[in-house]
């Protein structure tokens, strides 16, 4: 219930935060060489993200105990207060008090360089998570909300956002088993806590390297991997390695089944299924998809099957083209295997369009890209990005940058912490974390949203700034789309702020930003050679965009396979066969390349944790984003009226409005009647 993922609705008296003299141009914040060193821990310092308690790992216990005490007070308050709009406000404050610890800890437990901080954050996550599940089955708390929603006169008096938030809180009670007897409610809480623990353990296991005796590898390829005594350590698929044997070895070793990880996955899927059945759903997928755009697993599978059918012929042509390239370079071993497409499709693109990344990187310095983002947001939305010096102890690594997001008339909107650079023990993933959600406080002030963007970019050097490949630049735009959704979704309630919305809608703003990243009119504004100042030639941008169409069907077919696998894992239980057998059969049905014996890719499928039964969201959001681009920005990517409309009608609502209403009313043509037409349009948009 309580940690879920209209501007005009806020009171006129909301105070505007003015421009600060502490702010500097955003490009300058990223041209200073990041050192990558741990912070100086001597002397007095503040806490992480400005939270005083978090100046030391022990502060997590203080913060969680403080949150739990406040929770008890708010529960007593809402249970003894007559129902009214204030009921929803108290619920949201209750949610906020827990999320402000849980969300922050969820980031720190994987990203902080110090083990003590990570362990303390992990414990805080578990403690707060357990409390959330207990509250979700608290009958007295449920009844306080039920009294409000059962009073038609009171419900009719609520504004649409307040009513939706009340219904969302009620929905959280219902999917947690509030209707069950005491013994079954306790069972539901125990299952939820078990799922939290299994999810955390499985997620960690997806990143663990595998080792093998170095004598088992041909001597000529050993130097491609880390050596540890008599063993070789394999920590990734090495998908871009030119040597076929290196890619094959990495694939077979990294994906070799780990018995402990396999058991964790099986227990996770089984526990999710037990929980779903306990609270009244036929499968976990049915439970997870309530309230999404898709709404049901049947709709998702229909979407995936239609998309797969439309892609099928083009995918086969892509595979033939990739096979031809492999045969050209390696005629002795031309069978196409799963470790081949990323490398050979890259070669085809480079050969046809001359898009060697080294030709592009000098035009994409990180500082220039950040200035480009700020310029784009300013022209579209009246929003600018500025660097701000963090206080001592506020960040976890010296190379983290703090950005203030400022609107030309509304003032300061929130903060983005940019954890962009590689360092030891940092997860190799690009992602967005909500640290604090925005909400209207009782005093009329607005609680500013705070987020972290995490990338893995190379460090700059004394003579060379951080230079991005085209793919890195696109990823930067993608993640900044999430951040701006968080900054601009200024809802009254933090429960529905920004990206706290259905997963298959949350990816729309980020994927939409990829369209801007691939439009010459946008790229031309900031892509300058870091030494000469020369603009990136238009023909280079055109070649890059055209190259992305090469093997695009095969790339998308792979995503369809992943999404279908996710649905099957979270479908009817007991599963008809092992997770590995299901992987093999689904790969043959939805992808086409052969399964490799003694591999278990599903044990590296980290999205099964955060996107369980919802991996399809990337594909469906891409379809919606394509429609938004065509409707609003294709003609003019800097159209201010279109930008304001996009903010007003989509971003500003966060999760405070049904996503399907926004999609139907503002994006899909009025001619597209009914779900069948909508999903046909989605498939056509993607496959085309």
Task: Give a structural overview.
It is a single chain. The chain has 688 residues and is an alpha+beta fold. The chain contains 27 helices and 11 strands. The strands form 3 sheets. The chain has a 6-stranded mixed β-sheet. A 3-stranded antiparallel β-sheet has the order 2-4-3. Strands 9-10 form a two-stranded antiparallel ribbon. Helix 12 packs parallel to helix 27. It is globular, with a radius of gyration of 25 Å. It starts with 22 loop residues before the first strand and ends with a helix.
Euclidean distance between termini CA atoms: 39 Å
Specify Rg, calculated over alpha carbons: 25 Å
Largest beta sheet: what is the strand line-up? 1-5-6-7-11-8
Oligomer: single chain
Major sheet description: 6 strands, mixed
Kindly name the structural category.
alpha+beta
Coarse shape: globular
Tell me the β content.
Answer: 5-15%
Mean pLDDT: 90
Taking pLDDT < 50 over at least 5 consecutive residues as the criterion, the unreliable ranges are: 4-16, 34-38, 667-677
Percent helix: 40-55%
Number of helices: 27
In total, how many beta strands? 11
Question: Can I get a quick summary?
Answer:
InterPro entries: M3A_MIP (IPR033851), MetalloPept_cat_dom_sf (IPR024079), Neurolysin/TOP_dom2 (IPR024077), Pept_M3A_M3B (IPR045090), Pept_M3A_M3B_dom (IPR001567). With 688 residues, this protein is an alpha+beta fold.
